[in-house]
């Protein structure tokens, strides 16, 4: 089989998305308006939640979640040590304390046993991350968390589920990303979900500078010349209607994307199962995996090379790989500021050092998957 060039991820966007942007461009309503509303309604329906509120990224979604929950200096928020850095940064934005919890490197998600040890009287929120599209064990977390609000970081989990319930409705608030590495994209973009009417109202205001009504409501209302009142200090985290129009098209394809990803994840699992040095994703029937990424672990005691050596060999063969994500407590800013050691969170440390995502996305062909398997087997 001849050498190929397979990126780690590539969004499926094309003429349909391009044509969808025509309407906002022609009408001239470019900021949050009818297209964002349509995207929000469809997203809420698909994720079976009462409210979905579009914003500019998962990071700003998470930020609004902690602002809406009134997280402030003196409060503690529990965050898994293995996640994208912004899951932790948004806690620091509020001047609150990030309390890391270790993960189970078999699932890459919060280890409930470790969570028990991290809760104090100051814990004001827990952020379970549904990493790579696999939901955290929400029932185990809820048993421990009691009344503490749960913010789902579902950046990777559009369309994922846990015990038949879609991500986004498993906690107090849910946050999603539409960055191009996610299953569906709006270029950049995010969504906050909740079933709580009051939190929804606050988030709608916060994303629009703290205004009491949206720009669309004002412009189409009886007195467009009266500026709204601002009773909160908010932000400009509004999604544009150009993005909303792309989101509407992408969301229609989400279930097909996930179905295809499931087929190829199963293919990888069957084809790679006898490679002694490669640990494959493994989870029970309670989880409806969204397969944002297919993340393996390299057992360096059995592997022909160390993890980075294997990634280099695959890169040379035209196959892009990446570490799953990073351990935030090992990043310089966190390590130095909070005097953290790699060994403080051994599960996150191992995931940081040995995880390896191999390409799985909706632009790959059968031959691409066969090629990845063939090259890995030949190492
Ligand atoms: C777990 C997790 N949280 C948050 C984010 C941030 O998402 P965004 O780029 O939309 O801000 C990411 C992005 O990779 C992520 O993987």
Structure commentary:
The protein is an alpha+beta fold and 379 residues long. It folds into two domains: 238 residues, Type I PLP-dependent aspartate aminotransferase-like (Major domain) (Aspartate Aminotransferase, domain 2); 124 residues, Aspartate Aminotransferase, domain 1, CATH 3.90.1150. Helices cover 39% and strands 14% of the residues. It has 14 helices and 15 strands. The strands form five sheets. The chain has a four-stranded mixed β-sheet with strand order 1-11-10-7. Strand 8 and strand 9 form a beta hairpin. Helix 3 runs parallel beside helix 10 and helix 4 runs parallel beside helix 5. The longest helix has 32 residues. Bound molecules: pyridoxal-5'-phosphate. Pyridoxal-5'-phosphate binds next to helix 4 and helix 5. The site of pyridoxal-5'-phosphate has 15 residues, from helix 4 and helix 5.
Question: Topology, pairings included?
Answer:
Layout: H1 15-20, H2 22-27, H3 34-46, E1 51-55, H4 58-68, E2 76-80, H5 86-93, E3 97-101, E4 103-104, E5 109-110, H6 112-118, E6 123-126, H7 138-145, E7 151-153, E8 161-162, E9 165-166, E10 173-177, E11 190-194, H8 197-206, H9 215-220, H10 241-272, E12 278-279, E13 287-288, E14 294-298, H11 307-316, H12 332-338, H13 346-354, E15 355-358, H14 366-378
Parallel strand pairs: 2-3, 2-6, 7-10
Antiparallel strand pairs: 1-11, 4-5, 8-9, 8-13, 10-11, 12-14, 14-15
The structure holds pyridoxal-5'-phosphate.
Summarize the structure.
The protein is of the alpha+beta class and 379 residues long. It contains 14 helices and 15 strands.
